[in-house]
Amino acid sequence: MSEHSSSIAPFAKMMIVAKDEWRYWLRSKLAISVLAIGLILTLSSVVVTAINTMELSHTRHALQEDAEQTFADQPDRHPHRMVHYGHYAFRTPSPLSVLDPGVDAYTGNSIFLEGHRQNSAMFADQKQGTALTQLGSLTPAFIVQTLAPLLLILIGYSSVSRERESQTLTYLLSQGTSGFTLIAGKGLALMSVIGLILVPVAISALFSLHEGESITAIVGFVLGYALYLTVWALLVLLCSSALSKNSESFTALALTWILLCVVMPRVASSTAITTVPAAGKLETDFAVAAEMRKLGDGHNANDPAFAQIKASLLEKYNVDSIDQLPVNYRGVIAMTSEAKLTQVLNEFAEKRMQTELAQTNVSRDFGWLSPMVAIRSLSMLTAGTSIETHHKFLREAEALRFDFVQGLNKAHVEQLSYQVDMNRNKDTDSGQKARVNAQNWQVLDDFSFTVDTPSLRLQRGAPAFLQLLAWIAALIIAIRLVGKRLV
User: For residue 432, how many other CB atoms are within 10 A of its CB?
Assistant: First the structure.
């Protein structure tokens, strides 16, 4: 700086410091190499993930249409056979999943829907792969959340401590540059690096507009990552300013990265599982089976559990036997049994989902202790790839299952006589008579899953935004204190 630097405005001084920092980086092979590798890695992950997501979206749309057409093309059959024939529901990726697939790779993307059962989602990518396939999951979210902080550390760990080691710090301060102004100038240079990192992410996010994403969600998504990387830039500046040697600064930052990006997310998950225990699958299956036995067997119209329904129908239609009913008694039992069974299954499903959500919320609270946890929560919530989106898919798929099963049961009640139904296994001709027209298979509604509205997603992500802002505020206060004592 010149001897007249004391008369230069603070912002101008920051710009001079930032430019000087960039000149140093351009002369440093390590800094430029790290920056180039980081940008190439981010850009490559954006392109690969975008292509993969578009292929998945196209494939699942095609599979959904094929499943619906296959169901509708079935010939005349007994309606209950179609109940067991079943149908598939596929979850298409959200537009922003090109950047953060979130829980999609672990929760499954399709469900087989059939009568009397609620099946789990299937074909989760991670469950189908091996340990080696983890190398292929370098998504843009993973790159920015985990590797970008390392890039900032490698580039900026010596930003202030280097001046101290080279004996230029005292000279700069004596020229009228305050400690905070010097640190702010170094920070301005790091912020420009953050801007470069976010360019491919922002461009890819804007492409999701073509897939129907809202500009509000895109801005919230990119802003969240800008805040996250700002936290790391401030951490780098704090360590480099507070410690006297480059080696000490790098060691402290490396340990901080391990603690915040590797250890704390694992601690958060373990704490969530311990704090909110969940019933095991075997235990849940036994509990469900016990409740089912109380409902009676929907395939057995003579089950004692349905005696009250029988008496009610005979009284309603003023007849003496079920043969005289104007409706198919077996169909009535199937419809009533399915409704009661679905209610029980939904109660267990909701309990399980509430437990999973409670565990997730406990884990998200660790965002106050780790910015990595905060951005991971914010990223998935804003992108529509969080556990809430998976639960929405499960609920909508179950609603589809119940509607089409009850639609078939309605055909069973109204279009098939009880006598014909009872004699369907007598011979071939009787089996042919116990069929209904294939037009009844049109009860299946088109299924097209969409994520929650942008406003709801951003509302859910508000606590994570606050966590990142709290980190930034705390670090700025710490840097101001260090800047006053910078020597």
Answer: 10
CA angle 96-97-101, nearest 5°?
150
pTM of the complete model? 0.89
Q: How far is CA 256 from CA 150, 170, 262, 470, 473, in A?
A: 10, 28, 10, 18, 18
The answer to whether the CB of 409 falls within 8 A of the CB of 339 is no
Distances (CA, A) of 429 to 13, 76, 382, 425, 433: 95, 14, 58, 9, 6
Q: What angle do CA 24, 26, 30 make, to 5 degrees?
A: 90
Q: Identify the helix (H) or strand (E) that includes residue 333.
A: helix 329-364
Q: pLDDT by residue for the chain (487 residues), tens digit each?
A: 444 444 467 778 888 888 998 998 888 888 888 888 888 888 888 888 888 888 888 888 898 889 889 998 999 999 999 999 989 999 888 899 889 988 887 887 889 999 888 888 776 555 444 444 444 467 899 999 999 999 999 999 988 888 888 878 777 777 777 888 889 999 999 999 999 999 999 988 888 888 889 999 999 999 999 999 999 999 999 999 998 899 999 999 999 999 999 999 999 999 999 999 988 888 888 888 888 888 887 777 777 888 888 888 888 889 888 888 899 899 899 999 999 999 999 999 999 999 999 999 999 999 999 999 999 999 999 999 999 999 999 999 999 999 999 999 999 999 988 888 888 888 888 888 889 898 888 888 788 888 999 999 999 999 999 999 999 999 999 999 988 877 5
Cβ proximity of 39 and 200 under 8 Å:
yes
3-state SS assignment for residue 195? helix
